[in-house]
Amino acid sequence: MNNLRYDWTTDEIERLYNLPFPELVFEAQTVHRKFHKTDEIQGCQLLSIKTGGCPEDCAYCPQSAHYKTGVDREGLLSVDKALEAAQNAKSSGATRFCMGAAWRDVPDGEQFEQVLEMVKGVRGIGLEACCTLGMLREDQAARLAEAGLTAYNHNLDTSPEFYGDIISTRVYDERLKTLENVRKSGVTVCSGGIIGMGETAEDRYGLLRQLSNQNPHPESVPINQLVKVEGTPLESEADVDVFDFVRMIATARIIMPKSMVRLSAGRLELTDEAQALCFLAGANSIFMGERLLTTPNPERDRDEELLDKLGMKLFAEATA
Ligand code: SAM
Ligand code: DTB
Ligand code: SF4
Question: What mean pLDDT is predicted for residues 160-186?
Answer without folding.
Answer: 98
